[in-house]
TrEMBL record:
Protein's name according to its UniProt entry: D-alanine--D-alanine ligase
Cellular compartments per GO CC: cytosol
Pfam families: Dala_Dala_lig_C (PF07478), Dala_Dala_lig_N (PF01820)
Start and end residues of each ATP-grasp domain: 109-313
Family that this chain belongs to: Belongs to the D-alanine--D-alanine ligase family.
Function (record text): Cell wall formation.
Active site (record annotation): E23, S155, S291
UniProt-annotated binding residues for Mg(2+) 1: D266, E280
Lineage of producing organism: Bacteria, Pseudomonadati, Pseudomonadota, Betaproteobacteria, Burkholderiales
Keyword field: ATP-binding, Cell shape, Cell wall biogenesis/degradation, Cytoplasm, Ligase, Magnesium, Manganese, Metal-binding, Nucleotide-binding, Peptidoglycan synthesis
Biological process (GO), any one: peptidoglycan biosynthetic process
Length: 324
């Protein structure tokens, strides 16, 4: 976004928040922050919860663009994006295909592996099709501990760090309650960092890397949103050259998935080799008081309000975005 923005040109704006996913609570917090920020900038912005109202109302009520503050399924997975494409209402963030791939951690890994982007080794189990023996064999392939998670949930929901063979079954059962696909992933011990990206195509840029130091190294749902015990370090304090290298690989990973608008990629740095391993990408990251994209943007000199305005100014439909 360059130069002043004519907020009146945006027309009536819907901030999509809430929704039906397991991350509804976080989405409502994100949406409330975005709504307040846009209104403070003079945008004619209104809250819109797709769990309570039909999306067709957007057209009927004269909304001209949408800020997607939904997280997880039915918000970050290409479904809402597809509906908005059909309605012809430009929206923030990635389009249909990139959103659908990025929500699925396994599909994301397949694309990254094909493009030579480092990501931890993994095995996929399918609900109802795996045997007890197969579950027990996972650590033989990936080592211990093993990270077990649903393939399509965010905010660390349903994630377990299985320390031994005996914990595997419970971990897989827990993940299977949330998703038919259960991702078992090699644990990388070292620094946990995250790196946001803003923009589309050649104009996309990586923001400052944030290093996350959680209590006992446990960056779970509670520590993400509801405690002040987790430390977020910006500047990240990584050895010289490491931050730039992470930003470079994160930017590549974002582009190969066809992402646009914004996103945030989570990375583990192996403590021994210092090699970064990309875990997953969020195409509709949190915008709460604890959220990391606003924190990184602030370190780059971008206020929360200006960030919201930038994202809204970038709202587009898939076809428009590809021809920009």
């Amino acid at each position: 976004m360059s130069g002043p923005v004519d907020v009146k040109s945006f027309g009536k704006v819907a901030v999509l928040m809430g929704g039906q996913s397991a991350e509804r609570e976080v989405s409502l917090m994100s949406g409330a922050g975005v709504l307040k920020a846009l209104q403070s900038k003079g945008v004619d912005a209104h809250a819109f919860d797709p769990a309570e109202r039909d999306l067709v109302e957007l057209k009927r009520k004269g909304f001209k663009r949408c800020f997607i503050a939904l997280h997880g399924r039915f918000g970050e997975d290409g479904t809402v994006q597809g509906a908005l494409e059909l309605l012809g209402i430009p929206y923030t963030g990635s389009g249909v295909m990139a959103s659908a791939i990025a929500i699925d951690k396994t599909m994301t890994k397949r694309v990254w592996v094909a493009e030579g982007i480092p990501t931890p080794k993994y095995q996929l189990l399918r609900r109802g099709l795996f045997t007890r023996e197969q579950v027990i064999q996972v650590p033989d392939e990936l080592g211990l501990p093993v990270i077990v998670k649903p393939a399509r949930e965010g905010s660390s929901i349903g994630v377990t760090k299985a320390q031994g063979y005996s914990e595997m079954q419970d971990a897989v059962t827990k993940a299977a309650e949330l998703d038919a696909d259960i991702l078992c992933e090699q644990f990388v011990s070292g620094d946990e960092v995250t790196c946001p990206v803003l923009g589309t195509g050649d104009t996309a840029r990586a923001l400052p890397v944030i290093r996350i130091v959680a209590p006992e190294g446990n960056y779970d749902y509670q520590n993400k949103y509801f405690t002040d015990d987790t430390k977020y370090l910006v500047p990240c304090g990584l050895p010289e050259g490491e931050e730039a290298a992470i930003q470079e690989i994160v930017l590549k990973a974002y582009k190969v998935l066809g992402c646009r608008g914004w996103g945030r990629i989570d990375v583990m740095i192996d403590g021994k080799t210092r090699k970064p391993y990309l875990l997953e990408i969020n195409t509709s990251p949190g915008m709460t008081g604890h959220s990391l994209v606003p924190m990184s943007a602030r370190a780059a000199g971008i206020s929360y309000e200006d960030l919201c305005l930038m994202l809204l100014a970038d709202a587009a439909l898939d076809q428009e975005a590809k021809t920009k």
